[in-house]
Model the fold of this input.
Amino acid sequence: MISKEILKKVHQIEIRTSSIVNSVLSGAYSSSFKGRGMEFSEVREYVPGDEIRSIDWNVTARTGTPFIKKFVEERELTVILVVDASSSGDFGSQGEMKGEVMATISALLAFSAIKNNDRVGLLIFTSQVEKFIPPQKGRKHVLRVIRELLYFKPKEKGTDLALALDYLNRILRRKAVVFVVSDFATGDFEKPIKLLKRRHDSVAITVWDPREREIPDVGFIELEDAETGEIILVDTSDEDFRKTFKKEAQKESSLLKRLFRKLHMDFIEIVIQPKYDDTIHPLLEYFRRRAAKLN
Done:
């Protein structure tokens, strides 16, 4: 039995995302991804200029008049959300934790998918595959996906993206659209994500908090690694420390972007902002650009 508190939170997420899906994201989403192929629609009489290979010889022989087969794109897609639930998501300096933002982004994608009659599946991972929900259609199914994103309690704290992608590469038989939503604070994952990209239409969505890239001068503070529990005391008034911290963060970010470019894989960088609309702006812009490129 689902508690009233959970239902209320899920409803809030649905309200929060529905206006964006309806007004902005849905059209761009549907224009951004192609279906699995072409399916038969109907036959019609041949007119000069039609492709001869499209002639339906059975109907033509039966009627004595040339007819051709018409095909339309098979629109239905399978969308898989691969979402990081490691403890590094339990951090936030802008009013929301990274994990909450990942859940909201995933909700936007899920609602956009069902609005286009696509199937949605979910893989939640930490240092192990915590949960896999096979793709299905429908609002009821998507609400279940959102509940899991909001309230799932992972067993582990660490992150192993390579393990999650290996699992997905083994079980995912049909071509899908795969969104990997994470801060990508993990070990080497180039080999499995390269295989994923080869088989599926894959998009990486990186989510990070500004304080993970630059620390202000606030004196002595304790920093805790959410995944290992290690605590260190740092002096943020030390300018050299702040510069080194920023430099290392920029280096990690550059290496990640370089990897995605090397693989020719789409990626979206989400920087959490005080205003929700500002946070998700890069996601909406990505779909607009992709739709414009394909149409």
Q: What stands out?
A: Strands lie at 37-45, 67-74, 78-84, 119-125, 129-136, 177-182, 201-208, 220-224, 231-235, 266-271. The radius of gyration is 23 Å. The longest strand covers residues 37-45.
